[in-house]
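Tutorial, part two.
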Amino acid sequence: MICNGTEAFLQMLVDAGVRYVFANPGTTELPLNDALVTDDRIEYRLGLQEIPVMGMADGYAMASGKLGVVNLHISCGLGNAMGMLYNAHREGTPLLVTAGQQDRRLKFEEPILGSDMVRVAETWTKWAAEVERIEDLPSAMRRAIQTALTPPTGPVFLSIPLDIQMESADLDLTPAAPLDLRVRPPVDALRQAADVLLSAKRPAMLVGSRLTERDAVAEAVAVAERLGAEVICESGTTHGRQAFPCDHPLYSQVLPLWSPEVRDRLADFDVLLVAGMDLLRQYVYHEPARAIPEKIRLVHLDEDPYQLGKNYPLEVGLIGDVKTGLAELDTMLASRMTDDFAQAATGRTQTLADQRQSQRKAIRAQAASQRDARPMTSLVLMESLARVLPENVAVIEEAVTTTNTTFERLGALKNTDGYFGHRGWALGWGLGVSLGVQMAWPDRPVLALLGEGSAMYGIQGLWSAARYKIPVTFVICNNAQYQILKIGARGLDLPQAKAGNYVGLDLSGPEVDMVALAESLGIKARRISEPDELATAVAESLAGDEPQLFDVPIARTTPNRLEYG
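Running the prediction step on this input gives:
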C-alpha cells in the first residue's frame, strides 16, 4: 500500500482496535492532527498538559484491556509525561507512547526540542525505539503493539521523525497477529503446589492486581474456598486493583505497609499461595529487612518469571497465566484433598466470616462516634460515601490517607474490576485515570477520590472532562496538607516532625480554592461540609450525565502513623 508515515500509523492503529489517541500536540506532531481532520476512525482526545493525557490513556487501557495510545510533543512533552510513564511501568499498563522527532535532515545541527528520547524512555518501557526509515515503520508498529500487549504487559515508546511522518512509500501494513496468552503452568509443578498447600495447617493467600487484569478473580475465590484460606491483598503501596471480593468471608484486607507489621500479620500461617503480585515491593526500609517469616513455605504463581523467587526462596514456582493456573490448581486440590482437610477448611471459613462481621460493625460504630466532628474526619467521609455506592461503580483513589481501604474494610465495593489504586505513586495520576476509565465504561458510574495536593498535579484534566462531557464525579478530600509526608516524617523519627513542625508540607496561606478552579475549567463544583449532604450529592452525581466536583474539607490534624488496612 502506498501511503505516508502518518497514514500508515493510523491504519495500523485501526487494525489493532484502537479507538482513541490521547494527546497534546506540537509542531513535530502536526501531520497527525492534520490527518485526523478527515479521518474519523480514531478520535483525538486533547489534554492541556501531559500528566492528564497519560493518565487518561492509562485509565482507558486498564479498564478496557485494550492498547492505550498517547501522542506527545517531542522532548518537552515526553519530559512532562515521565512521572505518569513511571506509573504505567509499575502497573504494567499496555500503552503505546509516541512522540514526534525533529526532521532527520536537522539531526546534525542538534535542533531545538530534539534529543535522544529513546534513552530517556527506555528505563520505564518494555521497548523503545526511533524509526529511522519509512520502510521500518510497519515493523516498528507491529513490534510495539505486540510487545505492549504480551504478558508481562507494559508501556512501549516510539519516536517518529517529522519527515518520516510525511514521507510516502509502498508499505506492508499487515497487522500484528493476535496471540493466545493463556499459557498454562507445567502439570508437575501444579501437582507439587497442590501437595504443599494440602500439607498446610493454616494456609493463606496473597493476591495482587494481575488477578483482576487477567480475569482470574473467580478462580482465586474457588481456590480460597477449597483451602479455607484467609486472603490478603497486596499492601497499600501496590494495591492497584481489587484482586478478591471485599465482601467475601475469606477476604482479610491488605498487607500492612511496613516490614515488622507484615511479619506480625503473617506469623500464624505456615503456607502462602501467592498469585498475581510482586513479592514484595516495599516503600520505606524497616528492620527486620525480611518481611515474610522464614518458616513460611511459599508457592508463587505468576505470568512474569522475573517475579518468581526474586526476593524470597520458593517451595514451588509456577510460571503461567494466573487464570488457567488457578483453575487447574483447584481441580488438583479437589482430587487430592482429604475429608479431614475439607472439614478444617470449612471451620476456618466460618471463623473468618464471624471476624469480618465484627470488624465491620466496629468500623461503623467508630464512624458514628465521629459524625459530629467538623471538619468531618476521613472515616466519616468514607463511610458516608460507602452507603451510596452503586454496585457497578468504578472507584479511582489518589487520596491514600483519607481512603485508607475503608470501602474494602466495610465490604462496600460490590465488584472487583472497578477499583483503581495508585501503584507508581507519581502524583497527578488519579484525575486523568478516572476520565480514561469513564471513556472505556460509558455505562458505569465513576467516582474519583482525590487529595487536593495530588489533584493539583493534573488539574488541567478537568478541562478535558468538560470539553468531552465525561461524567466523572470528583470528590476532593481536602486537608490542605501533604499529610502522608507528615506521617512519613514522624515514622522516620525526625525531631521537628515529632514536635509538629514542618516546612513545605502545608497547602494553606493561601488555600487553593478548588471550587473556583474547577469552575474556571468548565466543571460544576461546590464545597460540602456535611456528611449527609455529601452522600446525597455524590449519589445524584453518579446517576447523572455531567462531570461534577465536590470539595470536602476534612480534619487538618495529622496522625502519628498510617493505619492502612
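The domain at 370-553 is CATH 3.40.50.970 (Rossmann fold). In part three we will examine how such features are distributed along the chain.
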